[in-house]
């Protein structure tokens, strides 16, 4: 019971609330700020950053670098706002462990149950589906390097990727991922270094493509392209699990999240800008959806095979860690519904439901990833409806409602940011849905892309 009480015993003036099984077993508060940094880095720096050169190709140098920089500043600020609000409630003896807890306590029960909770679960589960798909694509790429005329289909590799997740998802708690996420931090630096070096090598080689940095197309095409690019950048910087990550920190939590964010953003700035700028410099407006696709032309590699193999192995391993992080909200809900907090976490009564329901959630995610290999378009919609509200709008609202700094600069700044990103989110959602409509005739279940 002491582990359960530690969640809410800060300096609190209120008696601690009893914890449900989800909070008690999945969101254990035992970590340090270093562990927090590992979780944050894994949740933000993922293979999605390999799409940043493509985003820059839709915005050009000035617009691309501007939005890349602005989004970094805004997300760092908004994540710190969330942390400050969480620390404030912890000091009152009301430690909030989940995003929906924040919405319930600050805005009211309906917000947590019917809006923030479903948005977060949908967003995180969508990210898991995308992660399993990316893992399958990396496996297929590795396979084709060794057997260029191989006949295995993409869905077979997606299933293999899903089997790996089926094993890893049984890791009991978020805190238990700290060592995996440290390895993930090293892996993200590795695949970003490989992608950056590959872009620079090709850009200087004799086979370098003709570079053009102009944004082509009609006004309508350029406008929707720019909105898509903003959605891609916002999604790439997105997190969606800040409260759950802070919940893993052992009390007292004050100041620890800020240290973790500083380490995380040192990695973020190093990787995001190096991959985005080198990729766009090397390929210009020919940059593809992922910069790794530019490393092959007419099925011929522009880099040594060992470099491509190494990069895809790094990507496969790191995206597995990312998927594990984004499975935690689902795991927590399942644990809350089906586990008994009054008995040991590893009692048969709790282990069997955990094994069955976590496995079932991964099987569903793997099936959807295999069926919908065009999930990138759908994920863009999830990003517009998920990451932008959770990471760019709600932190400002939570802070203003909690501290009520009316007539102050921070109040009006937060209000302005919330309004601005609400408008951008709406436009990005329209643009993403439009892209699905345009691409709909190319969709095919279990396609071998």
From TrEMBL:
GO terms for biological process: amino acid transmembrane transport. Keywords: Amino-acid transport, Membrane, Transmembrane, Transmembrane helix, Transport. It is found in: Membrane. One of its GO terms (cellular component) is membrane. The keyword Nucleus does not apply. InterPro entries: AA_transpt_TM. Residues 30-437 form the Amino acid transporter transmembrane domain. One of its GO terms (molecular function) is amino acid transmembrane transporter activity. This is Amino acid transporter transmembrane domain-containing protein. It comes from Vitis vinifera (Grape).
């Amino acid at each position: 019971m002491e582990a359960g009480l530690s969640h809410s015993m800060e300096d609190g003036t209120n008696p601690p609330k009893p914890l449900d099984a989800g909070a008690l077993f999945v969101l254990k508060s035992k970590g340090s700020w270093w562990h927090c940094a590992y979780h944050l880095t894994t949740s933000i720096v993922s293979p999605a950053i390999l799409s940043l050169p493509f985003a820059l190709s839709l915005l050009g140098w000035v617009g691309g670098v501007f939005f890349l920089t602005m989004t970094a500043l805004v997300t760092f600020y908004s994540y710190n706002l969330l942390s400050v609000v969480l620390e404030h409630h912890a000091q009152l003896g009301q430690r909030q462990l989940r995003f929906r807890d924040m919405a319930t306590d600050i805005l009211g029960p309906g917000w947590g149950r019917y809006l923030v909770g479903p948005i977060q679960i949908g967003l995180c589960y969508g990210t898991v589906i995308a992660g399993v798909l990316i893992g399958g694509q990396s496996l297929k790429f590795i396979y084709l390097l060794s057997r260029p005329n191989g006949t295995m289909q993409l869905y077979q590799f997606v299933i293999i990727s899903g089997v790996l997740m089926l094993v890893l998802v049984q890791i009991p708690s978020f805190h238990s991922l700290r060592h995996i996420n440290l390895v993930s931090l090293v892996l993200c630096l590795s695949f970003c270094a490989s992608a950056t070096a590959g872009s620079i090598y090709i850009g200087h080689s004799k086979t370098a493509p003709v570079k053009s940095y102009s944004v082509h197309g009609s006004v309508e095409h350029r406008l929707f392209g720019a909105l898509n690019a903003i959605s891609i950048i916002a999604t790439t910087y997105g997190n969606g699990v800040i409260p759950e990550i802070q919940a893993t920190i052992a009390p007292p939590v004050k100041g620890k999240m800020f240290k973790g964010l500083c380490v995380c953003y040192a990695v973020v700035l190093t990787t995001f800008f190096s991959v985005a700028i080198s990729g766009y410099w090397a390929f210009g407006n020919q940059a593809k959806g992922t910069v790794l696709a530019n490393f092959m032309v007419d099925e011929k590699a522009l880099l040594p095979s060992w470099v491509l193999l190494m990069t895809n192995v790094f990507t496969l391993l790191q995206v597995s860690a990312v998927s594990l992080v984004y499975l935690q909200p689902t795991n927590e809900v399942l644990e809350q519904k089906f586990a008994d907090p009054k008995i040991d976490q590893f009692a048969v009564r709790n282990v069997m439901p955990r094994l069955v329901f976590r496995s079932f959630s991964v099987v569903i995610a793997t099936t959807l990833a295999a069926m919908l290999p065009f999930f990138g378009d759908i994920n863009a919609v999830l990003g517009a409806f998920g990451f932008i509200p959770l990471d760019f709008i709600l932190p400002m609202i939570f802070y203003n409602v909690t501290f009520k700094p009316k007539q102050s600069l921070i109040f009006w700044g937060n209000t302005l940011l919330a309004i601005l990103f609400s408008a951008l989110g709406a436009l990005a959602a329209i643009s993403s849905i439009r892209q699905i409509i345009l691409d709909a005739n190319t969709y095919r279940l279990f396609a071998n892309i």
